[in-house]
Write a sequence for this structure.
């Protein structure tokens, strides 16, 4: 097949996790529950931050953006899978698959960038506390978020445009529960060398780069905390970045697990399960990590829902 074939009535088949009909209701309710918990938990964080003036600070501004991105990330994959289970269909159109892949890549990259920006925020807060509000001005915070959105959008758009040049046979089976970039490229009937090279290059630049920024920020944070004389001061300084460090560990551990499962085993089933940890479980746990370790957020949530009408 030549590139640029007519894609009218063209579709892929998403294989999900199991073909057993008796397991489909269980899978449906598990993923529906996780999706609702993710949306509700992150929405609570956003509403709490927006409703309470004490949270109008750079740290909570970035946190609310992260919660919004987590809602969008899960919404690009789970609703389509739930709809396919309900309709007993595996099909997804070519256009819908490209759109799903674009938005998934966009929000996954945004997660990475926002965590890096939040690490820089914690670095400034702990190492330069007296100049924190001057350095982390609304102007800088807005620009950091804007740059994260623009770079992520360009990165995702580049992959999508390069995917459009590939040819596919109709009714191909994707061994996944959503249109994941690497899985779709593997099904192409035309040369995918440039696409694969772009994936490796982008993974290095947008994966190693932000991770190196996080490691550098925390190396400075640890060095600064070690210079604090009192144990109470050290504990207070560490507590301000403990939630973010937990989320970063969860994010990169699940990402590394996904990469290793794809590289070490050629089992699509193992890769799909690893993707669940990265795509669903991590966004679901993020608001709990921040709320359980932050007494201010717990207090704000209670006051928000218990205040008189």
């Amino acid at each position: 097949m030549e590139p640029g074939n007519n894609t009218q009535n063209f579709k892929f088949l998403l294989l999900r996790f199991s073909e057993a009909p008796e397991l489909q209701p269980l899978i449906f309710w598990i993923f529906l529950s996780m999706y609702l918990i993710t949306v509700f938990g992150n929405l609570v964080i956003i509403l709490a931050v927006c409703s309470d003036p004490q949270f109008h600070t750079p740290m909570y501004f970035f946190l609310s953006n992260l919660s919004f991105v987590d809602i969008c990330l899960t919404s690009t994959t789970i609703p389509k899978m739930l709809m396919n289970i309900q309709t007993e269909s595996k099909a997804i159109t070519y256009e819908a698959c490209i759109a799903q892949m674009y938005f998934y890549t966009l929000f996954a990259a945004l997660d990475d960038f926002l965590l890096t920006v939040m690490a820089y925020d914690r670095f400034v807060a702990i190492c330069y506390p007296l100049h924190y509000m001057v350095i982390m001005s609304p102007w800088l915070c807005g620009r950091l978020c804007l740059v994260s959105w623009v770079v992520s959008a360009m990165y995702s758009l580049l992959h999508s445009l390069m995917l459009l040049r590939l040819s596919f046979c109709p009714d191909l089976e994707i061994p996944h529960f959503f249109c994941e970039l690497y899985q779709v490229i593997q099904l192409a009937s035309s040369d995918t060398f440039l696409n694969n090279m772009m994936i490796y290059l982008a993974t290095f630049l947008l994966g190693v780069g932000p991770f190196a920024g996080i490691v550098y920020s925390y190396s400075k944070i640890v060095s600064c905390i070690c210079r604090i004389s009192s144990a109470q001061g050290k504990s207070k300084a560490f507590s301000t970045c403990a939630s973010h460090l937990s989320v970063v560990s969860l994010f990169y551990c699940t990402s590394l697990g996904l990469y290793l499962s794809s590289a070490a085993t050629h089992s699509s089933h193992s890769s799909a399960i690893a993707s669940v940890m990265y795509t669903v479980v991590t966004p679901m746990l993020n608001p709990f990590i921040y709320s359980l370790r932050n007494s201010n957020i717990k207090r704000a949530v209670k006051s928000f829902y218990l205040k008189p009408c």
About this structure: Confidence is low (pLDDT under 50) at residues 1-5. The chain is about 75% helix and 5% strand.
